[in-house]
Amino acid sequence: MIIDAEGNSVGRLGSFVAKNLLKGEKIIIINAEKAIISGNKQDIIKKYLVRRSLKQKANPEHSPKWPRRPDLLLKRIIRGMLPYDKAKGRSAYKRLRVYLGIPKQLEEEIKKEKPINLEKKEYKKYITILDLCKELGWRG
User: Fold this and answer.
1) Which residue stretches of the chain have pLDDT < 70?
2) Any idea of the CA torsion for 93, 112, 130, 79, to the nearest 10 degrees?
3) Domain of 89: which CATH number?
């Protein structure tokens, strides 16, 4: 199953993907950097800076690892929706692939099988994963 993340909410996308991964499907997410997180930009940025322990006095080397790259960040968010401590959660996580943009090896497959777009809602306040990752220090 191929899912286009462009304009989709990360929470809705993540719960849909996690449910289908646990059913045993292989899922590929494209355009990960264009997924959105709804809410106030500054609050979201503060939340993820704290998660990465960049604004706390704690040593970041001893904190949980949260990536800066958009595709890895989306994958990590989805991992939080899976029972990763159990064998079924780990095997489900291995069936997930997340890409920035559209990779060349998938272009033919995308032409055959149209990517799934979830219901898109209009949000007044939101931040894209790309903008969030740039605030976290990604230089890509």
Assistant:
1) 53-64
2) -10
3) 3.90.1180.10
Q: What is the pLDDT of residues 68-84, one digit of tens each?
A: 899 999 999 999 999 99
Angle between helices 41-51 and 129-136 (to 10 degrees): 50
Q: What is the pLDDT of residue 30?
A: 92
Q: How would you classify the pairing of strands 126-128 and 36-38?
A: antiparallel
Phi first, then psi: what are they for 98, rounded to 5°?
A: -130, 130
Question: Domain residues for 80?
Answer: 2-136
**94, containing H or E segment:** helix 87-94
pLDDT at 63: 64
pTM for the whole structure: 0.86
The answer to whether residues 30 and 101 touch, using CB atoms and an 8 Å cutoff, is: yes
Looking at the 3D structure of the chain, how many domains does it have? 1
Residue 60: what pLDDT?
61
Which burial class, exposed, middle or buried, applies to 133 when counting CB atoms under 10 A from its CB (0-12, 13-18, 19+)?
Answer: buried
Neighbours of 70 (CB within 10 A): 26
